[in-house]
Fold:
Amino acid sequence: MDMNTIEAVVPTTDPAEWRDGDAWLAGGTVLFSYGSTVLKRLLDLGEAGWPAVTVDDAGIELAATCTVAELYALPASEAVAGRKWPGLDLFRPCCDSFVASFKVWNMSTVGGNLCTSLPAGPMISLCAGLDATATILAPGGSSRTVPVAAFVTGDGQNGLAPGELLRSIHLPASSLSSKVAFRRLSLSNLGRSGVLLIGRRDADGGLVITVTAATKRPVQLRFAAAVMPGPAALAAAVGRAIPAELYHNDIHGLPEWRRDMTLRLAEEIRAELLEERLTVSGDFWTGPSGPPHATSPQPSAQP
Amino acid sequence: MAIEINGTATPATPRPGQCLRTFLREQGNFGVKKGCDGGDCGACTVHVDGTPVHSCIYPAVRAEGKAVTTIEGLAQGGALHPVQEQFLAEQGFQCGFCTAGMMMTAATFDDEQKANLPRSLKGNLCRCTGYRSIADAVCGTRDKHNHDAGAAAGAAAGAAGATASRAGQLGDNVPAPAGTAVVTGTARYTLDVPAEELQGLLHLKLLRSPHAHARIVAIDKNAALQVPGVVAVFTHEDAPAQFFSTAQHELYTDDPDDTRVLDDVVRFIGQRVAAVVAESVGAAEAGTRALQVEYELLDTVFSPQDAMLPSAPALHGDKDAVKARISRPRQNVVVELHSELGSVADGFAAANFIHEHTYRTQRVQHVAMETHSSIAWLDEEDRLVVRSSSQVPFLVRRTLGRVFDLHEDRIRVVAGRVGGGFGGKQEMLTEDLVALAAMALRRPVQLEFTRTEQFTAATTRHPFTIKLKAGASKDGLLTALQLDVVTNTGAYGNHASGVMFHGCGESLAVYKCDNKKVDAHAVYTNTVPAGAFRGYGLSQTIFAIESAIDELAVGIGMDPLEFRLRNMVREGDDMLSTTPEPEEDVHYGSYGLDQCISLVRDALDRGKQRYRDAGLDDLGPDWATGEGSALSMIDTVPPRGHFAHSRVSLLPDGTFGADVGTAEFGNGTTTVHAQLAATALSTTAGKVAVRQSDTDLVEHDTGAFGSAGTVVAGKATLLAATELASRIRTVAAALTGVAESGCVLDDGGVDCAGRRVPLTDIHDAARHQGVQLAAEGNWDGTPRSVAFNVHGFRVAVNTGTGELRILQSVQAADAGVVVNPRQCRGQIEGGIAQALGAALYEELCVDDAGRVTTDILRQYHIPSFADVPRSEVYFASTNDQVGPLGAKSMSESPFNPVAPALANAIRNATGVRFGELPIGRDKIYVGLKEAGLVPLR
Structure:
């Protein structure tokens, strides 16, 4: 929608230019979706020229301005050809976890999703699940690095100070090399995530389960190789890590359902990554759980 | 760098905060629609350098130096794009408001995307069709089952003794006349008026109340008037004193006079406080922010149960009960109903099983893709003209006359093509404001609701709380049915009475039962007003009663459909709900309920067998499967008069013109009118040009609600066309000397005992005699008939997650003779989809302070392509004695049996009764868990 209070669009990537009433403009899909009656200027990152994706042995560096479409294309691109990174298998399911369609992916950015900081932000799920770190530029030329899992601090809340700019996200090769698992539930087919869990079994044998969408902010459970949990230990760990009030409560899922589904999906991931059994869920996938959509297989109006 | 639009560089430059959507519309590209303005619905989809984007969330400045393609540029070299051809061929639209965006998206699909439409089309919402016709259009494979459905209905009509289907006439799948305009983006909706036609157009924005209940002490306009571009501010001091209701009915006395254009008391968060009119939307918005309002806060009440307590604040306590037509203003009771037929005490005593449950239905919003909007101006004769997105232009004229004390001939109300209604546009929510401003400022004034205003400040379905008690004897008789109904009408009583009474009408009358008791209250609360919504009260009570019927059947160990067959009315039975005598003017013009039940039962049986044969009947240990059904009855016309006037004339070129009052908002009545006239005039629908929804065209039309477009307005058109045919024969007889009885119309002429006179000659001959070959028809909406719908589902429920899968969806409809089977099927499919939304997802939430929290489409999930199964649709074979050429109504009613059928199927699968809507996956899970049915892992 139109933001009629905007007086100027200023192309810049310099946090020093930021002043009260400014907002960083990346893809614009969130700013222009909610609109604003207070913003005065948009600081336009559209001409930043940051390379969307940089791949090296240390991992993948995503510019904050990398579009979701570019991220979706990455696993099948030359840039990662030959890399033995199972973590790449998470990219597309996470993109498909957007309630927005591929058209919006052409504009919306990875950084924008992180900075919007909604519980169901699927780029948060992906980056937190892979222990990614975010590089933040501050006015005055300094920068800092924080884990994405800690960057998002609540529903729509994050650790950015006024004027700070999310520059990039680094996905470490160590996480990308891990065996991964993905689980998601929504109240509607292909709808907004109500519960999204990503699991990782690292090279050192450790298990990491990252809970998003169900909780107001990402929650990570870490188990060293020496103390792999059984079902009861896992459930207890989830209970300790996520107090009742941390479960998100909105139209996209009752907290009680989110809690029980978190427990259920965490156990599925545990079992899968520990190779006790294999199941797949996610309603856009076809797999052992059956056809992806609620559709009558028989033709209509058949006499 | 210029923005190129459809191959031409535009000299205009966008404003800094402007989105591409409004920029494109400002350049005259009206095919780019606003459905949500938030990136959710896809109606504004365009291509930027070939890439599809949602233009409402695309910063317009980013398009500089790029090439934009809109729907207007999709066709190349005068030939439609294949996608446009396919949408036309498959009629993949109803109101057409989403169609341009749908096609701009589909035009980019590769085969892989076409193979996964649930995913590929999740960014395109359609509220009308239920997506089946869109799927057929996108894939471009003419679905042969379309033709099966048409053929089946045609055969049904034939068997019932009606005229056999002829091309372009009754029973044919005639395409919508507006089809080409819709697929090329040139159909003109309310605000699609070129700037040059509205010189000096002003924009109106509303300051809305932040308080749920307050008296306005003072409004300081000064700062607002200082805002550059602001022209005027209107407050309650400028508004007429006349009270009225936003609800529009033939008799305004059907609704309470409890509303003012601008009031000095606000009764819900979002109510109009003041209107700012400015040269631009931005200036008007700035003006609303600059207004200083002093409020005196008043006590609030948010639930109807609380509102009836003696201690509750009275929202309209200052009003006179008789004068304002409010039952008990001091107790917040707008209207009430108390009745008992027989004795329910005796009925319960005779019962072997009694079911008692409190059922609840939620607030849902219509979510017509076109938001409320209107433009008012004064014409050269100084007459007020209002162009509005309305289902009821004639009633809006009447209400504007009453509110502003104007004679009706000083007002003209027109509707362009209307982007969906569903009852929401049977209200006057914008027209009074633009009229006020345009008359005061003598300039054109426009008001367009945002999607958030639709949710927070328009109208919703009435939430019902239904305490139900019902009994059955072990031999399968319904012995007693008792309802205590409380409806929440919100801050104003628009439609409170009609919805409550209608809700307690056909839902009860469809069952023979000697003992029926109803207590019902419609109650004010400090919340967004409820209003007319598809089904008009029936969907709420039918949810409760059909759920209860299912429980009774289970309770006495009988198949639920068998129990219905034992207790439902049969042709000739009195239809009784709350009065001891049946409605005088409601008849069994035809009766197909028994057929509908058989059609659904047989289809469910076949579906079960198909699953079994395919080895798909066992989904695994977590899944429970079940079947459920529900029935519904509806009177084919609203009560107490529904009037229509039509005028059909022979045009100089030998074709016909039909002027009708009823509005077109995707319901397809334009096609139906053309077909009815064509049948009477022995021509084809393509030769009947229909003009509509303009108070200057015909004398009066109550409007397009209560599914009256076919059975009332259509009847008027049929009468007019029949009379015109007779007059044409008279002229032909005089011309040839052949007796009138020997003159027979054919397509384009009259056969006079072997000599064929072309209609052009007939027209000329008549003109030379000074006779205009035109005829008028009118119908007053009585007597009325009854129509039926039965829905059946097979579902699977995941007992571990609450996920619900619809394995089979079947609806059988008794629509009498089906005038246009493809369109009627579309109405049913669309009704099913909308009902699935209300059954499973949609809920307008109001928090403890009275604020609507679900105010954008991402918080209010309407069914997307992925949510809607393909439904099997069947028609009963009946021929109505009341409706035009045997037809009955079929727009509202397909909605009504869907939610209870689904709840009954879930009950059958799991044993758990869900009596509160929506039945979300989370609520299913919690319900199963409470019942101890969630498997331990």
